[in-house]
TrEMBL record:
Matches recorded under Pfam families: Glyco_hydro_9
UniProt gene name: Vigan.02G011400
Gene Ontology biological-process entries: cellulose catabolic process
Signal peptide coordinates: 1-21
Sequence ranges assigned to domain Glycoside hydrolase family in this UniProt record: 24-480
Keywords for the protein's UniProt record, in alphabetical order: Carbohydrate metabolism, Cellulose degradation, Glycosidase, Hydrolase, Polysaccharide degradation, Signal
Source domain of life: Eukaryota
Official protein name in the record: Endoglucanase
């Protein structure tokens, strides 16, 4: 028997051994591979997700325009422009901040994933004073359970023409194109220039005709209730301008952020970040120039960013974030892991800014440094990869135990290569209702995740928990890249 004074040490040792040492590089590879499973359009010969095939090849024909390509946002077969643009911004930001930490082959794969989206987004702003915001009628799509390769639902094209406003989608598209122009600057300067030129055009459309796209009668029934603008279009205008400032260093965009901050509500909803609300991300992005001492007039953005980050730290007097008993960031509503990945991403980005400038955050009763932010982000990452009460990885295909019955049409139906006959709209119901695991593994997909009690039932019908989305994965790419290079942070 060990001496009594060794028991505390042995207990700590056992606890440390119970936490898995994760293979962040494998997780990064899979997080990027996931996007190949979400592709729409004509698939290339080097397509690695072999159970997928061509789909949506007629998209845009009703407008006599090619709108093929892009991504299906989640487990359905609709191309929603608003979340697709946000996904693209976050993939690009991942590469901008953490690309040099990626293995070279995964850096290339990440750029391929971005380009699949940007090639499509360029098409959406290719006509003057018009933006295409969606392809696919969601009502008919959601009434079917069919493979994208078999789609026979209406591929309605939703467009907004000036002077009708689409500031939110156009502003986010401007952000996506500006951010991606930075991601491609060294590897493909000509493409980068094309992206930046179109980013400016998209921003002008957003700013000249202000308003929410979901207020337009012509598109409301298609975009709502799925991706309505619930939180206003003002944040996307500032977000688009901030990314254009970052990409161009043009003082006109700096002046825009300075002069429009209060009128566009830059100080509102500072604790939110996701496809609909950009405020926390905007504040972190803009804070870079303040921390570097370049633009002190933007100090209110830094104050808001740090106020938000302080709320995430349980030991601070301003803490009000909710965590599950197992330690996962939790926000009510569906698809909770979108909050965990996007917030952890912001923590890591801000930690980088603090490290480079040797600064800390004053959270009232304590000072918080870069290392604290990184440790908090790592807890979210490790929880998602398996260090949780269920002992389950919420990334499909990673670890020994992961979701088998995800809410995803292509994954849950037999592949067209194994079952070449058409599976019509309602014929897919037997697969949806089956208790069998999905036949096709959507490697790298991160599902909506467990509830506030840390429980996960692996139920295909429970889409709030079992459906993956592109905007859950996109920030996770950057996070994993950081921990590939710094596994012990």
């Amino acid at each position: 028997m060990a001496p009594p004074n060794l028991f505390p040490f042995l207990l700590l040792l056992l606890l440390s051994l119970s936490v898995t040492a994760h293979d962040y590089q494998q997780a990064l590879s899979k997080a990027i591979l996931f996007f190949e499973g979400q592709r729409s359009g004509f698939l290339p010969q080097d397509q690695r997700m072999q159970w997928r095939a061509n789909s949506g090849l007629g998209d845009g024909w009703t407008y006599n325009i090619d709108l093929t390509g892009g991504y299906y946002d989640a487990g359905d077969n609709v191309k929603f422009g608003f979340p697709m643009a946000f996904t693209t911004t976050m993939l690009s930001w991942s590469v901008i901040e953490f690309g040099d930490m990626m293995p070279p082959d995964e850096h290339r794969n990440a750029l391929v994933a971005i380009r699949w989206a940007t090639d499509y987004l360029l098409k959406t702003v290719s006509q003057p004073n018009r933006i295409f915001v969606q392809v696919g009628d969601p009502i008919s799509d959601h009434n079917c359970w069919e493979r994208p390769e078999d789609m026979d639902t209406r591929r309605t094209v939703y467009a907004v023409d000036a002077p009708n406003p689409a500031s939110d989608v156009a502003g986010e598209t401007a952000a996506a194109l500006a951010a991606s122009s930075m991601a491609f600057r060294s590897s493909d300067p000509a493409y980068s220039e094309t992206l930046l030129r179109n980013a400016v055009k998209a921003f002008q459309l957003a700013d000249n005709y202000r308003g929410a796209y979901s207020d337009n009668a012509d598109v409301r029934d298609g975009v709502c209730p799925y991706y309505c603008d619930f939180d206003g279009y003002q944040d996307e205008l500032l977000w688009g301008a901030a990314w254009l400032r970052r990409a161009t260093q043009d003082d006109n965009f700096l002046n825009y952020i300075q002069s429009n901050g209060k009128t566009l509500g830059a100080e509102e909803n500072i604790n939110e970040f996701g496809w609909d609300n950009k405020h926390a991300g905007l504040n972190v992005l803009v804070s870079k120039e303040v921390l570097e001492g370049n633009v002190l007039s933007l100090d209110s953005y830094k104050t808001s960013a740090e106020s938000f980050l302080c709320t995430l730290i349980p030991e601070t007097s301003s803490s009000h974030i909710e965590y599950t008993p197992g330690g996962l960031i939790y926000r009510p509503g569906g698809s909770n892991l979108q909050h965990a990945t996007s917030i952890a991403f912001l923590q890591l980005v801000y930690a980088n800014y603090l490290s480079r400038t040797s600064q800390t955050i004053n959270c009232g009763n304590i000072y918080v440094n870069a290392q604290t932010l990184r440790q908090l982000a790592k807890k979210q990452v490790d929880y998602i990869l398996g260090d949780n009460p269920m002992g389950m990885s919420y990334m499909v295909g990673y670890g020994n135990k992961y979701p088998q019955r995800i809410h995803h049409r292509g994954s849950s139906l037999p592949s067209i290569k194994d079952h070449p006959q058409v599976i019509a709209c309602k014929e897919g119901s037997i697969y949806f209702n089956s208790s069998n695991p999905n036949p096709n593994v959507l490697v790298g997909a991160i599902v909506g995740g467990p509830g506030e009690d840390d429980l996960y039932g692996d139920d295909r019908a429970d889409f709030r928990k079992s459906e993956p989305t592109t905007y859950i994965n996109a920030p996770f790419v950057g996070i994993l890249a950081y921990f590939v290079a710094n596994p012990n942070s």
